[in-house]
């Protein structure tokens, strides 16, 4: 089975711009979660989608949004970029059927740099 | 609310020595506990997880962890470190009260000396 893929792998933007990141989960997985990883804050949960519905979200401002398509692919969008948004954005997929005990499979991440 | 504390942001061991990475958690309901490893420029890979049943969990690459409810701990061990074990390790917790949200610890970077 192919793993979780994320595109693009690297991205450079300037303050005020917006960005869209994409995640393709493992075939058959219906849940996609997004995390932000920074040296100072570690791994922080952004949101989780299951069958096109957001089931949970973390404590991020409304500039961070996401969606999931009928084929389970997911996108996250960050509007009005700030320098502090520079981070590695990780996507994780799971079956979505085992609840909190589900194993998450992570993609390689998208490295976003905001100048 | 769930939380995870990993003691020691950096741990250094000699090749062949015991690896012990510490993790303590907080959860108001029975937790599900995970250890993940992250190699440079890669995503996270599951090492092992505890859901229910046997409290000693064996994972990949010779790692194991023991769930101790009384100590709210889930420490990761490996009897003999290998150079390829050098990476960052994350402990994580989730529970049914958390609504499909996994909370990660700050991570412990493991260095292995030849």
Describe the structure concisely for a colleague.
Chain A is mainly β. Chain A has strands at residues 5-7, 10-13, 19-24, 31-38, 42-50, 53-57, 64-68, 74-78, 87-94, 105-106, 110-114. The interface between A and B is medium-sized, with 24 and 25 residues.
Topology (elements, then pairings):
The complex is a heterodimer of chains A (115) and B (114).
Chain A: E1 5-7, E2 10-13, E3 19-24, E4 31-38, E5 42-50, E6 53-57, E7 64-68, E8 74-78, E9 87-94, E10 105-106, E11 110-114
Parallel strand pairs in A: 2-11
Antiparallel strand pairs in A: 1-3, 3-8, 4-5, 4-9, 5-6, 7-8, 9-10, 9-11
Chain B: E1 3-7, E2 10-14, E3 19-26, E4 32-38, E5 44-50, E6 56-58, E7 64-68, E8 73-78, E9 87-94, E10 103-104, E11 108-113
| Fraction of residues in β-strands of chain A | over 45%
Fraction of residues in helix of chain B: under 10%
Shape of chain B: globular
Low-confidence stretches of chain B: none
**Range of strand content of chain B:** over 45%
Task: Name the quaternary structure.
Answer: heterodimer
Intertermini distance of chain A: 37 Å
What distance lies between the first and last C-alpha atoms of chain B, to the nearest angstrom?
Answer: 41 Å
- Got a strand count of chain A? 11
What general form of chain A does the structure show? globular
Mean pLDDT of chain B: 91
The biggest beta sheet of chain A is recorded as: 7 strands, mixed
Question: Could you tell me the mean pLDDT of chain A?
Answer: 93
What are the segments of chain A in which pLDDT stays under 50 over at least 5 consecutive residues? none
User: What gyration radius of chain A follows from the Cα positions, in whole Å?
Assistant: 13 Å
Give the helix tally of chain B. Answer: 0
Which pair of protein chains has the largest interface, and what are the residue counts?
A-B, 24 and 25 residues
Structural class computed from helices and strand pairing of chain B:
mainly beta
E-strand count of chain B: 11
SSE string of chain A, helix = H, strand = E? EEEEEEEEEEE
């Amino acid at each position: 089975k192919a793993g979780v893929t994320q595109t693009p792998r690297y991205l450079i933007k300037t303050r005020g711009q917006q960005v869209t990141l994409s995640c393709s989960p493992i075939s058959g997985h219906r849940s996609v979660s997004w995390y932000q990883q920074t040296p100072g804050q570690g791994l922080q949960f952004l949101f989780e989608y299951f069958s096109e519905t957001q089931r949970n979200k973390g404590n991020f401002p409304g500039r961070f949004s996401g969606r999931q398509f009928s084929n389970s692919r997911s996108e996250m969008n960050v509007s009005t970029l700030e320098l502090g948004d520079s981070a590695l954005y990780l996507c994780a997929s799971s079956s979505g059927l085992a609840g909190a005990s589900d194993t998450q499979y992570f993609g390689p991440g998208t490295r976003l740099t905001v100048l | 609310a769930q939380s995870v504390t990993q003691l020691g942001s950096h741990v250094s061991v000699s090749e062949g020595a015991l690896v012990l990475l510490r993790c303590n958690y907080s959860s108001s309901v029975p937790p599900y506990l995970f250890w993940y490893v992250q190699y440079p420029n890669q995503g996270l890979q599951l090492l092992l997880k505890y859901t229910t049943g046997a409290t000693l969990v064996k994972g990949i690459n010779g790692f194991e962890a023991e769930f101790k409810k009384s100590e709210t701990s889930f420490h990761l061990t490996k009897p003999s470190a290998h150079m390829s074990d050098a990476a960052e390790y994350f402990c994580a917790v989730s529970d049914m009260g958390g609504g499909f949200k996994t909370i990660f610890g700050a991570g412990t970077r493991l260095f292995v000396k030849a």
